[in-house]
């Protein structure tokens, strides 16, 4: 079988002769699943499509991954660019602009405009309550606290992501629990994040469990072709379905996103909208202290930038942030995404979370990460996930939600030195 994502693109490129004026991906088989998912043809055309797909897949299944990518590119070019994507990154136009990413400069983020998206999603793990995170954070006064930074800030709450779970008609992927929910929710989230960024706003995504980072980062990639990610977490979230001890997808998002790990996956129904195109070299971990053996092997194999709590203790959080940014964005050109799991903080700082691990970041260190990310001028998107108001005492919940608000306000530009006054009229001359 072809690697995940390649088979769908190959078949689409070979058959698709859609509207070449389209500004996005237009599936050549509307309302149908192609390639290996074409299991119930309904007409003669469907049978012909399936037979052609099987022939094409059979001719490519023995090619190396790089050769497959080259074939995909050539077929896409021959089909008039109908896919609207490239392996270098998402393109918002059908033809793409062909620019060299190394020549692009990161767009200055408009921090005067902020968009908030709630994702009350809990199907990426087994503990109930994490879906209540967005509501709890909003009710703690998040918008008011952000507005206190400056009355000129334009803050828009886009509400919560809604979705209907896909019907896979019996098609399953082993050891990926609730995949139909994860795929459906993340697809809608991806569209919403792109909309927020296209509206020239800093995008704040409130989880929900960490499985939602697949959609959040995918949406960022649709908006910006070159993205660097800081993944703040006690866990690496780097398992595949064949290595995960639990099958919970909130432990798999980095592996789903990274292009270097594309060949480690089978075909995943319902995820054809998501292409693993971000390089693992453009991601840095901060706060790791609970890493599975397979995850450690992958981190070492690919030389992933991983700053665990040992490195935080050894170098200090200031130097860790400096090194992380220097490695994932050495020229200061990439759009920055911070995906922040509240369990990166020590359990004493944030007890109401599902997979807490002792010995984590202090709240001061956590806030510093957000302040430094904001200070780059390139922070475009932030995820704050895994706040679970159903865990712990009311005091535990209050402490955890307050920590989340402090982190998000720092990401929006609040300074612990004091925010800048909009007028000096009250100061006596």
Automatic annotation (TrEMBL):
GO terms for cellular component: cytosol; nucleus. Signal peptide: none annotated. It is an enzyme of class 3 (hydrolase). GO terms for molecular function: arginase activity; manganese ion binding. It comes from the Eukaryota. Pathway: Nitrogen metabolism; urea cycle; L-ornithine and urea from L-arginine: step 1/1. Its cofactor is Mn(2+). Gene3D superfamilies: Ureohydrolase domain. PROSITE patterns: ARGINASE_2. Transmembrane segments: none annotated. It catalyses: L-arginine + H2O = urea + L-ornithine. GO terms for biological process: L-arginine catabolic process to proline via ornithine; urea cycle. Binds 2 manganese ions per subunit. Keywords: Arginine metabolism, Hydrolase, Manganese, Metal-binding, Urea cycle. Its EC number is 3.5.3.1. SUPFAM superfamilies: Arginase/deacetylase. Belongs to the arginase family. NCBIfam families: rocF_arginase. This is Arginase.
């Amino acid at each position: 079988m072809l690697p995940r994502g390649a088979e769908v693109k190959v078949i689409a490129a070979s058959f698709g002769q859609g509207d070449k004026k389209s500004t996005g991906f237009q599936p050549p088989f509307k309302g149908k699943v192609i390639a290996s998912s074409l299991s119930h043809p309904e007409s003669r055309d469907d049978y012909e499509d399936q037979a052609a797909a099987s022939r094409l897949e059979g001719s490519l299944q023995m090619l190396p991954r790089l050769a497959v990518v080259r074939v995909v590119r050539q077929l896409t070019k021959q089909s008039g660019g109908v896919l609207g994507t490239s392996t270098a990154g998402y393109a918002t136009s059908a033809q793409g602009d062909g620019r060299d990413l190394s020549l692009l400069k990161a767009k200055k983020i408009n921090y005067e405009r902020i968009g908030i998206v709630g994702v009350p999603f809990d199907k990426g793990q087994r503990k109930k309550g994490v879906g209540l995170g967005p509501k709890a954070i909003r009710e703690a006064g998040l918008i008011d606290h952000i507005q206190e930074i400056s009355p000129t800030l334009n803050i828009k709450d886009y509400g919560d992501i809604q979705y209907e779970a896909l019907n896979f008609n019996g098609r399953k992927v082993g050891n990926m629990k609730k995949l139909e929910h994860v795929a459906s929710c993340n697809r809608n989230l991806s569209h919403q994040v792109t909309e927020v960024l296209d509206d020239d706003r800093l995008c704040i995504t409130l989880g929900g469990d960490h499985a939602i980072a697949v959609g959040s980062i995918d949406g960022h990639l649709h908006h910006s072709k070159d993205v660097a990610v800081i993944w703040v977490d006690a866990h690496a979230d780097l398992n595949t379905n064949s290595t995960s001890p639990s099958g919970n997808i909130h432990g798999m998002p980095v592996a789903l996103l990274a292009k270097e790990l594309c060949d480690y996956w089978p075909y995943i129904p319902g995820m054809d909208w998501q292409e693993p195109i971000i390089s693992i070299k453009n991601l840095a971990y901060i706060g790791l202290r609970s890493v599975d053996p397979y995850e450690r092997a992958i981190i070492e194999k690919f030389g992933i930038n991983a700053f665990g709590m040992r490195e935080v203790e050894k170098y200090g959080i200031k130097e860790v942030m400096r090194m992380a940014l220097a490695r994932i964005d050495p020229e200061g050109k990439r759009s920055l995404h911070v995906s922040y799991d509240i369990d990166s903080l020590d359990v004493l700082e944030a007890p109401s979370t599902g997979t807490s691990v002792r010995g984590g970041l202090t709240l001061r260190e956590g806030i510093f990460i957000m302040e430094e990310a904001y200070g780059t001028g390139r922070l475009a998107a932030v995820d704050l996930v895994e706040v679970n108001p159903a865990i712990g005492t009311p005091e535990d919940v209050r402490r955890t939600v307050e920590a989340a608000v402090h982190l998000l306000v720092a990401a929006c530009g609040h300074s612990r030195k004091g925010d800048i006054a909009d007028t000096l009229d009250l100061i006596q001359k």
